[in-house]
Amino acid sequence: MLFKNHSSKPILRIAIMAILGWLTKSSALATDPINFATEIAPLLERSCLGCHSAGIDKGDVSLATPQSLLDAGFLIPGDADSSHLVDLITSTDGNPAAMPKDSPSLPDAEVRLIRRWIEQGAAWPESIVLREPPASDASWWSYQPLAKDFVFHSVDEFIDQKLAEHQLERSPPADRRTLIRRLTFDLHGLPPSPAAVVEFETDPHPDAYARLVDRLLESPLYGERYARHWLDLAHYADTHGFERDQRRDHAWRYRDYVIDAFNDDKPYNRFLQEQIAGDILWPDDSAAIIATGFLAAGPWDYVGQVETKSPSLRRAARTLDLDDMATQVMTATMAMTINCARCHDHKLDPLLQEEYYQLQAVFAGVQRAERLVHPSSVEEYQARRERLISQQRPIDFEIGMLEGQGIDLADIVGGGSGFGSGTIGAGLDPRTAKSASPGGGALIEITPNQFAKSSLRFIDGLFIPDGNDGSTPIPITSSGITISGLPDTSGTAWDAVRNGPVASQHSTVLSEIDFASGPHTLLGLHANGGITFDLTAIRAAALSVTESPPCDLRLTGSVGYFGAAGDNRADAYVYVDGERVAHFPQLKRQDGLRVIDILLPASAEYLTLISTDGQNGYSHDQIGFGDARLRPTSPAQPTPQAQERLSELKAERQELAVKIKAIGPPPKFFGIETTDQVPPVYLLQRGDPESPVGKRLAPGGFAALAMLSPAWGSSDSSTDERRVALAHWITDPRNPLTPRVLVNRLWHWHFGQGIVNTPSDFGFGGDLPSHPKLLDWLALQLQKENGSIKAVHRLILNSKAYKQQSRFSSQADEIAVDADNRLLWRQNAKRMEAEVIRDSILAITGNLNPARGGPGFEDFQYQDAYAPIYMYVTADSPPLWKRSIYRFIVRTTPNPFLSTLDCPDPANLTPTRLTTTTTLQSLALYNNDFVLRQADDLAVQIQRRAGDSPAQKIEQAFLSVLQRAPTPSEVELGSEFLATQELFLFCRILFNSSEFLYVD
To answer: Please, what's the b/e burial string for 962-998 (b: 16 or more CB within 10 A of its CB; e: otherwise)?
Structure first.
């Protein structure tokens, strides 16, 4: 026992020392400082941020930064026992911890780690922002560089390899009739003519198919077809959308740009650069400027951005506008779902919320607006128009004289000949006698009683009178004639002498006559002002037409005070060669019109009209001479020679009128304008424009594309620099997404599904490529062909994969392996899109209007209102029979027939058209008034060609609608049908057949 006690002492000593050592070590561990970045941050990111992060702050708690925990009382630095966060993550009585919810409780070691961190003061460096790791990272397949080395060098080799891996084989090639229909619908969106089908079926050349591909690609119909695909991505329409849904009458220029770009096979990088920054990179190229309509093609909240008085609503609308621009650009070009990062970091892809707002910063200085194509375009337009009008003026004058019309003085002031060729609203500055700009006001730097000589043929000049109580002579002609006896004036003047009302005119209506509507005219003359007409020049011009000696003239018309009622008043005068022939003192609005009928003898040289301010200031002193005309007292009797000349002149004038109309207004388009100062952009907490956080953001890209720099400048970079940087970043040869996305879209449009079956999502939430090597090979071919889209078309269309037949047995073994045909063991039959159905019906009936370009046709009745009303009508005339690409597209009131057939909503980006089969579609195709009228037109044509033979009628109907001859059984059944029913009904049935609506 003593031995035992003696022997146990060393053992006890060792045990005690071990325990003390462990306690010492444990104490040391407990006091070691916690490294937040390496120990706490990963734990919180892994376990908590899925529910508690910026934008997804469930329970109103976010762990992105410590402030939310502190504000909510969940964290009390230095006191773990009082910190509610510890209670939430600690298991009690064997029950799981409250958090993380719906997940296993944290291990005890991690709970102890958090307790120690809190006890040590819960240090959280400001530079560390917690981010929930996305489902993918920069190693995701689509962010990798394009593959360069390939074993295969054709589409079919890649396809065949995949088929062989799954013990599958390609289907047999389709027959020639199927191929020409497939190609023509695919590239033109229209059926081939029966003659074209026969020509191709009988073409003996071995390269007949390849030559057909080339012919179809070179046709302008190709651009009309493929522009529709791109406009779906741009969510293009001709109205704003939203509550007001106002018109965009010049948006069509962007649509025509896209059509031309596809037809011209514009290099794809150039195509993209023009649409993002064409006005900067090529400022002298009208097409490149119009291309920026891409950025403005989407919906725009006019009420939210213009009409609202609420700053917060305006900020919200502007934030959505910037989101639309940024989302459209990145979705269309790179298939990145960046809008998912508006409220928080992207949950699936390695895109940060901060990066999203850096991209928004690119467009911070961009506004949608209707604008001129080019500043010089106005000058060019005016010069072209003036050249034609200058040819029109002498014709108008001669016609007017031969017909005995009166010479209109207001028209002369507007730059015309006196017979309607003058510009309404145009005027002459009384200080200089030169043309005055619209919307004038008070004149400055006035020198009263100074005569300004005019360069216009029939106007001698203008002046601003001030009579100084009759003591000052006033020059009123270039020959030195003066007048005196005018009253004292204020020495001020307003606006120009105009063909129409002066600026800020109170009204153009007096004595119940509106002089702003035809056939009335108004010579607007605000006090104080005077104008002198050259009667000698007018008579000389008349003499050259009538060849009759000078005769007496009469000045007819009326004069009145067109300003506001009350005590406002002004004086009006008429002088002939310096002699006063009429005086209308103290004219007021309530006086109405005063008739003018003044004889102008053949010897008279000058006619002067004057207005003064009534000696009470010039406010409201808007004198107007209504329908003021010079008429011969004895009109010449028309001779046969004069009548013949009159007919010639009217024909010439009609030709000129057509040319002038063809010029149209100055070329405008709906696009973008930029501001000199770029508004700041901040990260918005939860996407709320009222909750900006952090520093002002510079424009930038995404770090996930490691081969490209995401830094594009600073927060001081100009709007132009930002858009150019974005355009170059997207089209950088090292950017793998841009070419991959484009060739995948082409593949999708040709096969009905892409190599990546989510053409606008190449991220983790999208599809994986069925043939990744083929995708990269096609992208590389696009780059090698200098961005030629047509070159990629040829690679795809000439492949055996594309030329396969689409028909298969429901018992085919391939279905068990690849039911969705992702491996392309056959071609995919496709239902026509809504627009293709409409256009094909018109083409088959021969009614399709081939006119191209220009403003969209309006298949509706338009009623202007606060929210405009668009009421659709049946397209029953040639102007409404143009291709659907040229339709005026209304966002909030879509065409009901096309919408029923799955025409997409232009408020949304549409990378993939929906294809549904509904009862409403059957009813629309069978009963819609458009289809009924077109079926009737087709029946009339067939009747004319086939006569009374039922068999001939059936054959002509099949050839027209289905581009093939009917089978004997179809002829028999059709003839039986026609024995009791009308041919119209048979055509109607064919338009509703699956063979018409689906393309093999």
So the answer is: bbbebeeebbeebeebbeeeebbebbbbbbbeeebbe
Q: Position of tokens 């910026």?
A: 54
| pTM assigned to the model | 0.75
User: How many of the other CB atoms lie within 10 Å of CB of 173?
Assistant: 15
The token pair at 386 is 């003036």
Read off the tokens for 108.
């005890």
- Going by pLDDT thresholds of 50, 70 and 90, the confidence category of residue 219 is very high
pLDDT at 7: 42
Q: What is the mean pLDDT of residues 481-509?
A: 95
| pLDDT higher than 90, residue 937 | yes
Q: Which sign, positive or negative, has the C-alpha torsion 776, 777, 780, 782?
A: negative
- For residues 180 and 191, give the distance between their C-alpha atoms in angstroms, rounded to a whole number: 9
Give the H/E segment covering residue 999. Answer: strand 998-999
Write the CB contacts of 698 (distance below 8 Å, at least 6 apart in sequence): 358, 361, 711, 712, 713, 714, 715, 717
Tell me the torsion sign for CA atoms 216, 217, 220, 222: positive
The per-residue pLDDT for 374 is 82
Alpha carbon distance 467, 580 (integer Å): 14
DSSP 210-276: HHHHHHHHHSHHHHHHHHHHHHHHTT--SB--TTT--B-TTTHHHHHHHHHHHHTT--HHHHHHHHH
- Give backbone dihedrals phi and psi of 731, rounded to 5 degrees, phi first: -100, 10
pLDDT in tens, 351-391: 999 999 999 999 999 999 999 998 777 777 778 887 887 88
Q: Compute the distance between CA of residue 126 and CA of residue 66 in angstroms, rounded to an integer.
A: 9
Least confident of 40-44, 179-183, 268-272, 592-596: 40-44
Helix (H) or strand (E) holding 514: strand 513-514
> φ and ψ at 411, to 5 degrees?
-65, -40
pLDDT tens, position by position, 151-171: 999 999 999 999 999 999 999
What is the model's pLDDT at position 315? Answer: 95
**Residues 273, 269: Cα–Cα separation, whole Å:** 6
For 754, phi then psi, to 5°, come to -90, 170
- Highest mean pLDDT among 12-21, 110-119, 698-707 belongs to 698-707
- Contact present, 140 and 350 (Cβ < 8 Å): yes
pLDDT-derived band at 24 (thresholds 50, 70, 90) equals very low
Q: Decide: helix, strand or coil at residue 453.
A: strand
Neighbours of 289 (CB within 10 A): 26
Question: 3-state SS of the chain: helix, strand, coil percent to 5?
Answer: 45, 15, 45
Band of the pLDDT at 35, cuts 50, 70, 90? confident
Give dist(CA 719, CA 678) in Å, integer: 6
Q: Which two tokens stand for residue 225?
A: 């077809």
Q: Which of 599, 533, 542 is nearest to 401 (CA)?
A: 542
SS (H, E, C) 671-694: EEEECCCCCCCCEEHHHCCCCEEC
Name the token pair of 836.
């293709």
Distance CA 463, CA 476 (A): 7
Angle at 100 between CA 96 and CA 106, to 5 degrees: 65
State how far the Cα of 536 lies from the Cα of 633, in Å rounded to an integer: 16
Neighbours of 512 (CB within 10 A): 7
* CA pair distance 441, 502, nearest whole angstrom: 9
Which tokens in the block code for residue 330?
A: 């990145």
* Mean pLDDT within 893-918: 94
Q: Give the distance, in angstroms, between the CA of residue 799 and the centroid of all CA atoms in the same chain.
A: 36
pLDDT at 216 over 80: yes
Q: DSSP state, 582?
A: E
